[in-house]
Amino acid sequence: MNVVGVDVGATKIATGVVSSEGKVLGRVRRPTARTSEKLLSGIVRAVSEVRDGFEVGGVCVAVPGLLLSQESIVVYSPNLHAIEGIRLKDELEPEIQLPLTIENDNSAAAWGEFRFGAGRGANHLVFVGLGTGIGGGIVIHGQLLRGAQGAGGELGHVTIQAAGPRCACGNRGCLEAFASGTAIGRRAGEVASERPNSALGRLAIEREVLGEDVTRLARDGDEVALSVLKEVGRWLGIGLAGFVNVFNPEVVVVGGGAIGGGGPLLECAREEIYVRARSPGRDLVEVKEAALGLDSGVIGAAALAKGPSGNCLL
Amino acid sequence: MNVVGVDVGATKIATGVVSSEGKVLGRVRRPTARTSEKLLSGIVRAVSEVRDGFEVGGVCVAVPGLLLSQESIVVYSPNLHAIEGIRLKDELEPEIQLPLTIENDNSAAAWGEFRFGAGRGANHLVFVGLGTGIGGGIVIHGQLLRGAQGAGGELGHVTIQAAGPRCACGNRGCLEAFASGTAIGRRAGEVASERPNSALGRLAIEREVLGEDVTRLARDGDEVALSVLKEVGRWLGIGLAGFVNVFNPEVVVVGGGAIGGGGPLLECAREEIYVRARSPGRDLVEVKEAALGLDSGVIGAAALAKGPSGNCLL
Hints:
The structure is a homodimer of 314-residue chains.
Chain A lengths: L1 E7 L3 E7 L5 E8 L4 H16 L4 E8 L2 E3 L4 E4 L11 H9 L3 E5 H12 L8 E6 L3 E7 L2 E2 L30 H5 L1 H14 L4 H8 L4 H9 L3 H25 L3 E5 L6 H15 L4 H4 L1 E4 L6 H9 L10
Parallel strand pairs in A: 1-4, 4-7, 8-11, 11-12
Antiparallel strand pairs in A: 1-2, 2-3, 5-6, 8-9, 9-10
Helix pairs in contact in A: 1-2, 3-11, 5-6, 5-7, 5-8, 7-8, 8-9
């Protein structure tokens, strides 16, 4: 039975009809609206368009932010306030007219990689999504870790440097403040001003440097941009080393939009894990780039969609 | 059916016959031997003594260090090298002549508090044991988190200050390096030299200050000792805040021998959690002292003992 997976992001709603083998059979993308009403009707419309012509057994909508799973309400979504405070299942299910599941977007991405991506065959997986912020999803003994309220898995918000820079969450020194796409851009801006003759330095004179600029410049051979990616990779590794000690996973999957610079970033993260984490966990763990790329969320959401009996359909 | 729980520590082997209600009906304690052979025979003898006169269905031995659960071999036990490298189940079961389970000591303590102590009624619990080092045990969705090799739950070895002091594990800036009993003693020694007229300062001139000295002096009203406990409590809270964000537990239980100074230590940890962790998890979580005290390990081990069918007996 095919299933529809929906990944609601800050800028776009990605939907896909996903087969029982985890293949995306059809896609629809729509921009994310900024008001709650339009956001909801945009999701309904995208689902209706994408399922057209397919037999579909259920839908799962993955949403960004802190989701109280029982009430299916997002209480905090820094990049998509329009989704906060709505009883998503109650609002959307009557419109969609299919069994509807609501999930956190990073949990969905973790589950996608676990079932059909870089974590196939593992029982324990840690997923870290690098984007504007850092999201996390954790699979333990083959089960998603949600925690008591569904608010677990916030891997971006562990302190790795107690007196470090202020994080978007209000805390200081979170992993997110050192290794998100935003942090890559910010650090690049600082380094650029010290190295004005580098490609990075020249760009920074023209405009604000973004995480993706750093990735691109590093790939084009700019040593300064590369050094920023390496530095961020080491911070990432400091956080991941802790997760290796705590979860003893077979695989850590790094995904999200800011992982374009995968190679050097992950290489430095791996080195730091090897220095900081303990045997035998550090010897076992593989640190991989997300195999499903930006489809992790859509495919993972589909794999979490439940049928009328309450069981997953894929 | 009664069960025997065994908690193997660096200095003593604590055993108890535990009832199905989690009550300790009888106890035997023996010193821990320093050679593998004597250690094993000491465990066997303690079990034989404690079960005398009771009907007992099984035994669980909880051991310190990194336990590969499938092979029941401890690969690393910094404070009890004699236990390393032995196939514990294979060696002990024929002597004990009862179904035998081997567990990690902090996992057992977590399970004890979950079933019969401060975590009763919770589904998600984080246990942190403060002793010579810091151990951890995690219950998620009512299940112990072991990880792929049984090496998970190492909550003492997450980096909270990247360039911090060297930890016993070789890493820098681990939670253990800031908030273990050893760390309390070390920090007290530093502070004492700046405050030679305090009770702490006078003690430090006579001999090395231990974690338990700090607790005692703080309870007796020494402001300097109290300030050390508060500082350590804040570091503990920095680590715990990350666990609240990652696990979203209903309860965090702090136990172990170095929690004698519970009050001010935990109070400062709670304040730090409130500053650093996110809603709604920080609003839900209760941070409690272990209700079973030093019995967490014995009772928890008993509750993890399996019968011939492979099911837990309690």
